[in-house]
Every structure is written in structure tokens, then in C-alpha cells.
Design a protein that fits this description.
Blueprint lengths: L6 E4 L4 E4 L4 H29 L5 H45 L7 H4 L20 H30 L2 H7 L14 E2 L4 E4 L6 E4 L2 E4 L5 E3 L4 E8 L6 E8 L2 E11 L6 E2 L4 E5 L9 E8 L2 E3 L11 H14 L15
Helix pairs in contact: 2-4
């Protein structure tokens, strides 16, 4: 206990007496010691971190965890690259093959690549820059979710149409509009650019011309509904437009006689009129057009010039037998089934 006490010499009595230290003095000494300790601690922290470049343990731990999460997000983005490429391939096949085969309208890139709109989905990431890996990953995931949804809906639509494939086979304009017997027609102007017979300038010919004498029977090339019947002095002259569904439409122009009316349902091979020389025509012929989703396509891509005439006329007879339409032709009695 004696070691914990301090003594001082009393000059009057020449005796050592116990020195009494006040609480204020003790507090001041403690305060000086605490401040000195804090200053030295801060000095050493500055020395280690700023001068020597040594990181604090907590900083090292947080940086390590941050690096782990950054690597995980990079791995997620690498996987997203693969999925995005696969989804892009599915979309291309969807547009170029599946939807095209079934005559479905194309899905615009703006719809396929659109993200989520409306509310701000990224409020929690508002403090991060657009270049932030976390924010870019969140946006990519959202966009891919939307693209996947659009693609799945497209496949559902294709699946529904595929279940009606039998109907589609009979609706596609897959035969010639006239008897394929070479003795009944002559190949005239094909699809594509040609010299206009009236102006002499180059112009797109949107159909295929079958040169034949007036009165040659004209047949519908696929099941469908008569969309339009016109009697004009110019242009297509007397013409018929048939909607076959699945994006297909056909036109039969410059007719002399028309046997059908708008709204009539037709079978492939039914006689719908006779070829003629009406409208803007340089001679007797049938002008035949095929349109797919509103765009003109080459009719010869859909039929075979070498189809046996016996097979063709068998189709015509079958269509006539199965038809429930009442068609009145010149000098022919009406037969009601």
C-alpha cells in the first residue's frame, strides 16, 4: 500500500508527509492522458493508412466481400449474355420461320426489346450511376424478363395456329388459278420489274399474268372468303379479292365475268369467274396476285406449273360437289343443293 502513496518533505518540520492530490488535479491528469492517447491513436491510424497504405481490418473485410459480390454479378452477366443470345436466336427463328410459315404478323423490334414502363422500378438504386454494375444487372434482368414473356406469348399464338394446321393447308393459295393444261393459257408477264406496256418505263409488276382467251374459267387457289368484288373501267377492271386467312390474300383481275359475291365462303378449286380484258389491260389475260400480310409476293412460289391437269380437274369437281354456294352462270340453270 505504501507504494501507492506519494510523500513530500515538509520544510518546517523536516518530516515526510503524505501528499494529498485533489480530484480536480486527478481529472486534469486523466483528461491529458486521454487526449494524448486519442491524438496518438489518430496519428498512428493516419500514418498506417495514408502514409504506409495499410488498410484497416474492417476495410479489408468489406472490400473482400464487395469483390466477391462483384464477381458474382459478373458471372450473372456472363450467364445473361448466353441467355440473351439464345433468346435472340429464338426471336429470329420465330420471325423468319414460325410466324412466316403460319402467316402471322411480325412482332416489331420496339415491342420485343421494350422494358418495363410506368412506375420507377429502380428507386432503391437511384443513388447509383447508370454505369453501376448492380444497376445495369437489374435493368438487364427486367428487360430479359419482358422479352421472355413476349416470346412465350408468340409461341402460344403459333401453337394455337399450329393446332389448325389442317385448315391452313387448305387455305394457302397453293395451286394455279387456271387449268394447268398448257393448251388453255400462255405464260405472259412474271412477277417483278418490267417495262410497262402503256408508258414504256420500268415498273413493278405485282402479280403473274396468264394470257388466255376471254371466257377461260378462273378458280380460287385456296379456301377463303370473298373480301371484295369490283367492277371498274380502269385499273384492275372487274376483279375479285379473296381473304384466305393466316395472312394470305389473292386478287384475280381483268375478268370478263364474276360468279361470286362479297362474303361468300369458297373452297379451293371453285370457279369464281372467267378471264377477260377489262380495265387497264393490253390484251385478254388473267392478272393474279398473292399478298402475304399485306406485302406482294411471287405467286409462282406457291404453285406448280407441272401439276397434272387430271389432278387439277379432280380438285375442281370435288370443290363443286362440296360447295353449298348457289352460283348462276350464263346459259346455266341454277342447281340448289
Amino acid at each position: 500500500m505504501a507504494g501507492t502513496k506519494k510523500y513530500r518533505l515538509d520544510p518546517e518540520t523536516l518530516l515526510y508527509e503524505i501528499e494529498k492530490v485533489s480530484y480536480r488535479s486527478r481529472f486534469n491528469r486523466f483528461a491529458v492522458l486521454a487526449v494524448s492517447t486519442a491524438v496518438m491513436t489518430l496519428f498512428y491510424l493516419w500514418l498506417f493508412t495514408s502514409v504506409l497504405g495499410i488498410e484497416l481490418p474492417k476495410t479489408t473485410y468489406l472490400k473482400r466481400k464487395n469483390a466477391e459480390w462483384v464477381e458474382k454479378m459478373r458471372e450473372v452477366n456472363r450467364q445473361l449474355d448466353h441467355y440473351d443470345a439464345a433468346l435472340e436466336g429464338l426471336g429470329m427463328r420465330d420471325e423468319d420461320i414460325y410466324r412466316n410459315i403460319f402467316g402471322l404478323d411480325a412482332i416489331s423490334p420496339a415491342v420485343r426489346n421494350s422494358g418495363f414502363g410506368g412506375v420507377n422500378r429502380y428507386d432503391a438504386l437511384a443513388d447509383l450511376s447508370d454505369a453501376s454494375l448492380l444497376k445495369r444487372t437489374a435493368v438487364r434482368l427486367d428487360n430479359m424478363t419482358k422479352k421472355t414473356y413476349i416470346q412465350s406469348k408468340s409461341f402460344e399464338e403459333i401453337s394455337a395456329v399450329a393446332r389448325r394446321a389442317d385448315d391452313m393447308v387448305s387455305c394457302v393459295p397453293a395451286v394455279m388459278p387456271v387449268n394447268p393444261d398448257p393448251n388453255t393459257y400462255r405464260k405472259s408477264s412474271p412477277f417483278g420489274y418490267r417495262t410497262d406496256p402503256f408508258t414504256g418505263s420500268a415498273k413493278m409488276h405485282t402479280g403473274y399474268d396468264f394470257s388466255c382467251p376471254p371466257g377461260n374459267p378462273v378458280y380460287t387457289t385456296g379456301d377463303g372468303v370473298v373480301k371484295e368484288v369490283k367492277f371498274e373501267l380502269f385499273g384492275y377492271g372487274n376483279s375479285i379479292v379473296i381473304d384466305h386467312g393466316f395472312g394470305y390474300t389473292t386478287r384475280y383481275a381483268h375478268l370478263r365475268t364474276i360468279y361470286v359475291a362479297e362474303g361468300m365462303k369458297l373452297k379451293r378449286g371453285e370457279c369464281i369467274g372467267e378471264s377477260g380484258n377489262t380495265g387497264r389491260s393490253s390484251g385478254p389475260h388473267l392478272h393474279y396476285e398473292v399478298m402475304l400480310r399485306g406485302n406482294y409476293v411471287n405467286p409462282t412460289d406457291y404453285f406448280d406449273f407441272d401439276m397434272p391437269k387430271e389432278e387439277y380437274m379432280s380438285m375442281v369437281k370435288k370443290a363443286e360437289a362440296e360447295s353449298t354456294n348457289i352460283i348462276v352462270r350464263p346459259n346455266q340453270r341454277v342447281r340448289i343443293r
